[in-house]
Write a structure and sequence with these properties.
Largest interface: A-B, 32 and 39 residues
Distance between the termini of chain B: 53 Å
CATH superfamily of the largest domain in chain B: P-loop containing nucleotide triphosphate hydrolases
CATH class of the largest domain in chain A: Mainly Alpha
Radius of gyration of chain B: 24 Å
Mean pLDDT of chain B: 89
Largest sheet of chain B: 6 strands, mixed
Number of strands of chain B: 22
Strand order of the largest sheet of chain B: 6-9-10-3-11-12
CATH topology of the largest domain in chain A: ABC transporter involved in vitamin B12 uptake, BtuC
Number of domains of chain A: 2
Shape of chain B: globular
CATH architecture of the largest domain in chain A: Orthogonal Bundle
CATH architecture of the largest domain in chain B: 3-Layer(aba) Sandwich
Strand content of chain B: 25-35%
Number of helices of chain A: 16
Low-confidence stretches of chain B: none
Largest sheet of chain A: 2 strands, antiparallel
Low-confidence stretches of chain A: 1-9
Radius of gyration of chain A: 21 Å
Oligomer: heterodimer
CATH class of the largest domain in chain B: Alpha Beta
Strand content of chain A: under 5%
Number of strands of chain A: 4
Mean pLDDT of chain A: 92
Number of helices of chain B: 18
Number of domains of chain B: 3
Distance between the termini of chain A: 21 Å
Order of helices and strands of chain A: HHHHHEHEHHHEHHHHEHHH
Shape of chain A: globular
Structural class of chain A: mainly alpha
Chain lengths: ~375, ~500
């Protein structure tokens, strides 16, 4: 058992600690450089809202990348889906639920189409989605006729801009903590039920202290910003990340994705339907892109022809900074979310410091390459 | 004066002493075999020699012509006349034979390649080896055997004086092996020293002047081949006397478990070519059915065609346990209780960067762990079964599969398929490239499974293995069954005659 723990610690867990340390350093630096603005409740609340779109996309992208594929079209699909929703609500005056449904359904359909071309016609995902990047961007320009469609529907804007009140925040925290405790007890009990030893309730509960602490601090910080509470886009992102985490670590679907990305032949010969699982992951990516599109449009109160441009690269960068391998088979949702948070922190911090636009791009690009370079060097040594 | 002398080489990895004071000498014109179980340190020793592990990462000295040499890169060792031919070929399939031979050292002026000189020199080199290979042909169009010979030509183009061959015959047919040995004899006359790593002791004894046995990173001994017997070498390798490595069978046959008729398997590249042509057979519960045949006879294709993992066209009628079965995907095959320990564990069997646990529960995941939601605890308990029964040497089920030795990797693949509780088990080259000890354990396991009533279909290139394990042998030749023998009838001569199409 001690060997087991050691081998886990030296691998992904160690990596996660290093990433958290890097994030902490970035935050402390910005806090110092901005004259104590960065780590205020107000800024952290903004930062979290800013990362929500990239975060939702990164969760989907991580699963696509783990399966050994890539989706370059998400930025364009995001623009297209947001365009459809805004066009239906504002120009065609449909109800919001219909518009939301249409945006999500179209995104899933695009995911299914691209997934089918990749999985069943064996066209590399890079090519299929590169085509998608062009085609869906064209589609949104066509749909919107090259102009911006404003959104005045209050509920639509709320998806991107609103908050759940402080009390609701604490209620969510209570539910989340209850869940964490429930899982800890369940783990301890299953050890006994499966005859692996005595149920160690105290040990499992002690391990839950960190997540419980995290939940409390998170809600407390979010509420501390003018008593507004948790931003709705952040809530959506956290929910998506939890679902993504569950899918990748605790379902057969998730395991199959890692197997397919790790060795497609071995997966196929073990009875896994590679094609169907790749199709599923692209459909999932589509659904999440649709969701991200609604947040994005809601945040900007509009749909623009170039909405979401380069978002696919942010999502891919988040995954890669988080330790995912573009060859497939490796990566975690947790890492991808941390990666998204690191990217968003750089954006936010540099904006606060009034770093010029072009300089921000240069710095972000360099950090991306450096992060992966260091990671590779670390892997080689071990 | 020795051509090569390696003195007290010590190489440590975190937690393991892979080489513990190994000494080794090679004379000019000598054929010196290096044998030992997997993990004994043979490959590590050769990596030290070739600069893969640069100077400073090991202790001890390497002397060539009595001068201490230090290599920091493979290039430096090549310049000193050391050339290694690895088990996995390192040729570029999309380039021509000539380009491959002179890869990285093409005759050129100001970076512009002198093609006519390149092909001329390649032709001379190939003729010198009496190889009838056109240097302008793409390497990908050559058979594995010829590729191996090109690899040797490439080594010689670098004026190799010390040639290391790591399992060079693993993929060769017998006639190709003969060609290879002919060339090696010629090189010997020219004074090239050869270090030969192989599990095939017949070849080792046929060719060697001296044999060095390694075990657990130490030299057990070096002796003239003429002074040693096969049994002595095996005993030295495993550190114990091995009796007959094949278990004594006492199988009781039950009902027919699997019946195949009219099996056709078509080539992927040439759509109308049949690789397996109208083959039919059956296997009973508790029976080990061996399938013998030369490379390319269609043995693996036969298994893939039944398991529905063949990616080209195929057709057949299958009856499992007396009832007709429709098998159109590996998942169907698994649900009918068929397991398939595929050949080439690194390519088809394992996800190397994942844990033993992840690999072992993959095929039976939904049954072991849950249909949608997985349960690590249940998986751990399940994986611990084969971990113990197959005696897999690893710290825990959380060990990464890629870090295991070949034998243990093979056991993980076998364990994966045992976890689906198969009624019928296909084994394709289950002991390729693994050491004698692990082989023996896998043989015993096959025998035990048959005894418990499993129907087993075994494909192997090693004739002794097929003959030693099988209750019945069918022989394939160019996609047709050319012979069927019971255990008592099957002799190497009869099987080989059928396999070569001479009846």
């Amino acid at each position: 058992m001690s060997d087991e723990k050691k081998s886990i610690l030296s691998g992904q867990t160690l990596r996660a600690y290093i990433m958290i340390a890097v994030l902490a350093m970035i935050w402390l630096y910005f806090h110092w450089a901005t004259g104590s603005i960065f780590l205020t409740a107000r800024n952290l609340s903004n930062l979290m809202s800013q990362m929500s779109v990239t975060g939702v996309l990164a969760v989907g992208m991580l699963m696509v990348i783990v399966s050994g594929n890539i989706d370059l079209s998400v930025g364009s699909v995001l623009g297209f889906a947001g365009g459809i929703a805004a066009f239906m609500v504002t120009t065609m005056e449909y109800g919001l639920p219909t518009a939301i449904l249409a945006a999500i359904v179209v995104s899933i359909a695009i995911g299914l189409l691209q997934g089918a071309l990749t999985a069943y016609l064996n066209i590399p995902a890079f090519i299929v989605t590169l085509g998608g990047l062009l085609a869906w961007r064209g589609a949104v320009k066509w749909l919107l006729g090259g102009s911006t469609v404003p959104i005045s529907d209050k509920t639509f804007m709320a998806i991107g801009q609103s908050y759940v009140g402080p009390m609701a925040g604490w209620a969510i925290a209570a539910v989340a903590i209850a869940f964490v405790v429930f899982m800890a007890i369940r783990r301890a009990r299953s050890v006994k039920e499966l005859g692996l030893g005595e149920a160690n309730y105290t040990g499992e509960l002690l391990k839950s202290i960190v997540p419980i602490g995290g939940i409390i601090i998170f809600i407390w910080v979010m509420n501390a910003y003018d008593d507004k509470g948790v931003p709705i886009p952040v809530l959506i992102f956290v929910a998506v990340a939890l679902v993504g985490g569950f899918l990748t670590t605790s379902t057969t679907f998730g395991r199959y994705l890692y197997a397919i990305g790790g060795n497609a032949d071995a997966a196929r010969l073990s009875g896994i339907n590679n094609k169907r699982n790749v199709l599923k992951v692209f459909a999932l990516m589509g659904a999440l892109t649709g969701l991200a599109a609604l947040i994005f449009a809601g945040r900007g109160s509009s749909a623009t022809p170039d909405a979401g441009t380069l978002k696919e690269l942010d999502a891919i960068a988040a995954c890669v900074i988080g330790g995912a391998s573009l060859v497939g088979g490796r990566g975690t949702i947790f890492g991808a979310c941390l990666g998204a948070l690191i990217m968003a922190s750089l954006d936010n911090g540099m904006s606060l410091l009034n770093v010029r636009d072009f300089m921000q791009d240069i710095i972000k690009g360099s950090i991306l390459v450096a992060a992966v370079g260091l990671d590779m060097a670390g892997r080689k040594r071990s | 004066m020795s051509l090569l002398e390696m003195k007290d080489i010590v190489k440590e990895f975190p937690g393991v002493r892979a080489l513990d004071g190994v000494s080794f000498t090679l004379e000019a014109g000598e054929f010196h075999s290096l044998v030992g179980e997997n993990g004994a340190g043979k490959s590590t020793l050769m990596k030290v020699l070739s600069g893969v592990y640069p100077v400073g990462t090991y202790e001890g000295d390497i002397l060539i012509d009595d001068t201490v040499r230090t290599f920091r890169t493979i290039r430096e060792s090549e310049n000193a006349g050391v050339s290694i031919i690895f088990q996995e070929l390192s040729l570029v399939k999309e380039l021509t034979v000539g380009e491959n031979i002179f890869l990285g050292q093409a005759p050129a002026k100001f970076g512009v390649i002198d093609w006519s000189r390149l092909y001329h020199e390649a032709t001379v080199l190939l003729q010198d080896l009496h190889l009838d290979i056109d240097p302008r042909v793409l390497v990908g169009n050559l058979g594995i055997g010829q590729q191996q010979l090109v690899e040797i030509a490439k080594a010689l183009s670098k004026n190799a004086r010390i040639l290391v061959l790591d399992e060079p015959t693993a993929a060769l047919t017998e006639s190709e092996v003969e060609t290879l040995f002919g060339i090696l004899r010629k090189l010997k006359e020219r004074g090239v020293g050869m270090i030969y790593i192989s599990h095939k002791l017949d070849e080792v004894f046929k060719m060697s002047d001296r044999i060095t046995v390694l075990r657990d990173g130490k030299t057990v001994g070096t002796q003239a081949a003429a002074d040693m017997t096969r049994d002595q070498v095996i005993a030295a390798m495993v550190g114990r006397e091995v009796g007959d490595i094949f278990p004594k069978p006492d199988h009781k046959f039950g009902d027919t478990a699997l019946e195949i008729s009219g099996l056709d398997v078509y080539s992927i590249d040439v759509p109308d070519k049949k690789l397996v042509d109208n083959v039919g057979f059956s296997v009973r519960r508790g029976e080990v059915l061996g399938i013998a045949g030369l490379m390319g006879a269609g043995r693996s294709e036969l298994l893939s065609g039944i398991f529905a993992s063949w990616q080209g066209r195929y057709s057949r009628k299958i009856t499992v346990g007396g009832t007709p079965a429709t098998i159109s995907s590996p998942a169907d095959a698994i649900s009918h209780g068929i397991g398939f320990v595929t050949e080439d564990r690194k390519r088809f069997g394992l996800i190397l960067e994942q844990t033993i646990l992840d690999n072992m529960t993959l095929a039976g995941l939904q049954k072991i762990s849950g249909r949608f939601v997985t349960d690590r605890m249940r998986e751990t308990i399940a994986a611990n079964g084969p971990m113990k029964s197959l005696r897999i040497k690893a710290n825990s089920t959380m060990t990464i599969a890629g870090t295991l030795s070949g034998g243990n990797q093979q056991k993980v693949v076998l364990g994966k398929w045992l976890l689906i509780n198969p009624k019928i088990l296909f084994l394709d080259e289950p002991t390729r490239g693994i050491d004698v000890g692990a082989k023996q354990e896998i043989y015993a396991e096959i025998n035990r499974l048959a005894k418990e009533g499993m129907a087993i279909v075994l494909v192997s290139s090693e004739l002794p293995e097929v003959l030693g394990l099988s209750d019945r042998v069918i022989v394939l030749h160019e996609g047709h069954i050319t012979g069927e023998f019971t255990r008592s009838e099957a002799t190497p001569e009869k099987v080989m005659a059928a396999a070569t199409g001479n009846q």
